[in-house]
Design brief:
The chain has about 450 residues and is an alpha/beta fold. It has 2 domains: about 10-205, Response regulator (Rossmann fold), CATH 3.40.50; about 215-449, PPM-type phosphatase domain (Phosphatase 2c, domain 1). Helices cover about 35% and strands about 20% of the residues. The chain is built from 11 helices and 15 strands. The chain has helices at about 10, 25-30, 100-105, 120-125, 130-135, 155-160, 175-215, 270-285, 295-305, 400-415, 420-435; strands at about 65-70, 95, 115, 140-145, 165-170, 225-235, 245-250, 255-265, 315-320, 325-335, 340, 350, 370-375, 380-385, 440-449. A 5-stranded parallel beta sheet has the order 2-1-3-4-5. The longest helix has about 40 residues, at about 175-215. It starts with 8 loop residues before the first helix and ends with a strand.
């Protein structure tokens, strides 16, 4: 016990860094230092092996004592900190540092709160620079400031604005007030840190959303007066904006409309990134004036170079629509055939029997292009397998391509088109599935005439 009536680590050890092991119980050494208020007693974990005897519960673990670090002049000549008790009624540990050098040495993980004498800052630095340095040293520890009296009220309030949790006046210090102030400060700091973490998480999520949104395609259809475009994109990953499915549509200066849709196997961010790379590689080749099988050969090379695993592959469907809109050339690389609905006729799949394998499965592959007649007025739908692999009812049956044709036919008979038609089809597929579709879904609809 010191001359001022309170016990410090300095009285026990002139150079304290942590509580000696011999002063800790076995339970305290096992649980390690405490970074805040004493925790409630806990029980031991369940036994590893089930036995016929009831599982026994160990004795409650003694919580580590509350630790206060006082930064200021020697308390014997400046101010006295009264005896403090933690939540269990035990005496709190108090450490004293005369300056920031000592404070850095004494600031260990088990310090719950810091009490900073603002007079130290007035003598050793300008204004509140010492407080700012303490906040940098201990960004996760609660900080209380001590002012000389009401004349320093403005300085104390400024300390709170700088980052301290609260302030006290020297002539008002007594045990109950200091106890309450410290515990409020610790809880306030915890709440501030939790709020900061939530804010950082929200900002990071918003940034990721902006990034993913920026990677989604912007169709280039300037000059395509008779062609209307609609799309529906729904990633299978929870809270994601971008999945492994990808699509794009471009009209080149000669009037040809190029459309593509693809699906990278898998659902993670790596697959989503690879889908973006393939889409951009396809767009670059189209804008460079390339066409035909050479585009798929290049995309296969891009996939082989960029995929994180040799087992990853991608399916692809490309459609090149002639400037007059009456004909198209189709290439399939392991992808479902597009759906065509001519005016006055039921929807049907484009006849395609010569599709090649998916990109990345086999080397030295050739993909055949097939020419199809579209007619004057038509709707052409490109889609990924996420739409047709949803379940129907409680059994194992899948929607399949025939079920998808039925959804589209029903929507067309009801006079739906564009976004409304796609929304109705995807919504009904989800209803049949009994909830969200687990795979990525991408659908592109081109209406002509």
């Amino acid at each position: 016990m010191s001359a001022t009536g309170w016990q410090t680590d300095r009285a026990k050890n002139p150079h304290p860094t942590s509580l000696p092991d011999q002063q800790l119980t076995a339970e305290q050494r096992a649980t390690g230092p405490s970074s805040g208020l004493p925790a409630q007693p806990t029980t031991a974990a369940l036994p590893r092996q089930r036995t016929s005897e009831p599982a026994s519960v160990s004795a409650p673990v003694t919580p580590a004592p509350f630790t206060l670090l006082v930064i200021g002049e020697d308390p014997a000549s400046a101010f006295a900190v009264p005896d403090l008790l933690d939540a269990t009624g035990n005496r709190a540990r108090i450490r004293h540092a005369r300056n920031l050098t000592e404070a850095r040495r004494l600031l260990t993980d088990d310090v719950s709160c810091i009490l900073l004498d603002l007079e130290l800052g007035a003598r050793q630095a300008k204004g509140l620079d010492v407080l700012r340095e303490v906040l940098r040293m201990a960004p996760t520890t609660a900080v209380l400031t001590l002012a000389s009296g009401q004349t320093d009220a403005e300085l104390a309030a400024e300390a709170v604005r700088v980052g301290a949790q609260d302030y006290l006046f020297r002539n008002e210090i007594e045990a109950s007030l200091l106890n309450r102030a410290m515990r409020y400060a610790v809880e306030r700091k915890r709440a501030d840190l939790a709020q900061l973490q939530l804010t950082e998480t929200r900002l990071r999520a918003e940034e990721n959303a902006r990034l993913e949104r920026g990677l989604l395609p912007t169709p280039l259809l300037d000059g395509a007066e008779k062609l209307r475009f609609a799309a529906r994109y729904q990633p299978g990953r929870s809270r994601a904006l971008l999945g492994g499915d990808f699509y794009d549509v471009i009209r080149t200066p000669n009037g040809t409309v190029h459309a593509m849709i693809g699906d990278v196997c898998g659902h993670g961010p790596d697959e989503a990134a690879l889908g973006v790379e393939l889409r951009i590689a396809w767009r670059a080749q189209i804008l460079a004036g390339l066409c035909g099988e050479s585009i798929l050969q290049t995309l296969q090379q891009v996939l082989e170079y960029e995929r994180p695993d040799d087992e990853i592959f991608a399916t692809l469907c490309t459609v090149d629509i002639a400037p007059d809109g009456r004909r198209a050339s189709v290439s399939l690389a392991g992808h479902p055939s597009p759906l065509l609905a001519r005016r006055g006729c039921p929807a049907e799949l484009l006849p395609y029997e010569h599709g090649g394998p998916a990109l990345g499965l086999l080397p030295q592959v050739e993909w055949e292009r097939v020419d199809v007649e579209l007619g004057d007025a038509w709707s052409l739908m490109l889609y990924t397998d996420g739409l047709i692999e949803g379940r129907v009812g409680m059994g194992t049956a899948r929607l399949g391509q025939e079920g998808m044709i039925g959804l589209i036919d029903r929507g067309l008979r009801e006079g739906l088109s564009g976004e409304e038609l796609l929304d109705a089809a995807v919504t009904e597929a989800m209803a049949l599935n009994g909830g969200e579709l687990t795979d990525d879904v991408a659908v592109v609809l081109l209406d002509h005439g």
